[in-house]
Amino acid sequence: MVTRFNINNSVIDSFNFLSVGNGEFSFTVDITGLQTFPDWYSCGFPLGTMSDWGWHRGENPGCNYRFNLGIIALQILKKNGKEVSINDIKDPVQILNLWTGEIDSRFDVEGMPVHLKTVCHSDYDMISVKVNSDLIGMKRLRIKINFPPGLPSTTGYVFDSPHKQSTKILADTNNYSIFARAQDNNNYYVLVWRNSAELKKVTQHIYYLEPHQIDSVYSFSCQFMKNLETGRIQNFGETETASKKSWEKFWNNVSADDFQGWSGPRAKELERRIILSKYFTKIKCNVPLSGLETGLTYDSWFGKFHIEMHWWLKCQKNSSQK
């Protein structure tokens, strides 16, 4: 009943997004399975990394807002050495497995296949990703970690803002790195299980993970945390197993209605909405007081008008095309 409503997406659209999460933390991705094109998606649904504790609290109590904890992306180079754009992503096929809470993303870049699996840990604010592509061994694919400053906007961040913030490396070993983040009176930490990849600093707030291996598979994990002592090193396999167990327990204990035997024209659609609402409630709204009607997707203090306006513009565009 659950898996027959798995979400399948093969259209690159800024209004098409998928998320993984555990109810207290959510990670929203684009067509690549990570947050590779945040600027492009900001015109529709912004790509966010948000937690229930991730609130900016400044000196002015009226300026509190939920902010983005970081952007985790792919950086892929074309044959000519230039970085790919959204237009270079070809033949995408993306599936959200509702039963396991896993996003499977496949696409081509200049005829080279790229395959990602994205999961969220059930107990920690952590995402784990496995990347499979020959572009890894060719040194044309790496992971980009970006820490833009948090600002009161629909995205929760702005890349070109001069706001005061700091990113420091507290630890850096062969397998993991720990970042300390600060902006105004807000502090948090990011633990990256690098899996032997080299950590390369680009700017104070941008870093690359460059895999050493010459084969086609690389995996990593990122944990976001308010307190350093809650950090846990979990590889992709451990995170994937925890996610599957958590989702299986959830689906086996949640109530839902099966309309397979009902001949009404709205039966399938009603069943679909029930299943998807259960999924999104679990990944985004499992805290007593989230403070936002959008859960952990984006900062809706600025989002209601934003979304209504973009939906109107999209309808106008579709009408003109017809």
Note the main attributes of this structure.
globular, 322 residues, 5 helices, Beta-galactosidase, Chain A, domain 5, four-stranded antiparallel beta sheet, disordered C terminus, 33% strand, nine-stranded antiparallel beta sheet, alpha+beta
Structure description:
The chain is an alpha+beta fold and 322 residues long. The chain has a single domain (3-159, 196-220, 231-321), classed as Beta-galactosidase, Chain A, domain 5 (Distorted Sandwich). Helices cover 20% and strands 33% of the residues. The chain contains five helices and 18 strands. It has helices at residues 38-41, 134-137, 236-253, 267-284, 303-321; strands at residues 7-9, 18-21, 25-29, 49-51, 55-56, 65-66, 71-76, 90-97, 102-109, 112-120, 126-132, 141-146, 166-172, 176-183, 186-193, 198-203, 206-210, 217-225. The chain has a nine-stranded antiparallel sheet.
- Give the end-to-end Cα distance, rounded to a whole number of Å: 35 Å
The CATH topology annotation reads as Beta-galactosidase, Chain A, domain 5
Number of strands: 18
At the first level of CATH, the class is Mainly Beta
Largest sheet: 9 strands, antiparallel
Q: Which structural class best describes the helix and strand composition? A: alpha+beta
Mean pLDDT: 85
Query: Which parts are unreliable, with pLDDT below 50 for 5 consecutive residues or more?
Result: 302-315, 317-322
CA-based gyration radius? 20 Å
The overall number of domains is 1
Please give the share of residues in helix: 10-25%
Shape: globular
Tally of DSSP helical segments: 5
Quick summary of this structure?
The protein has 322 residues and is α+β, with helices and mostly antiparallel strands. Helices cover 20% and strands 33% of the residues. A 9-stranded antiparallel β-sheet has the order 1-8-9-10-11-18-15-14-13. A 4-stranded antiparallel β-sheet has the order 7-12-17-16.
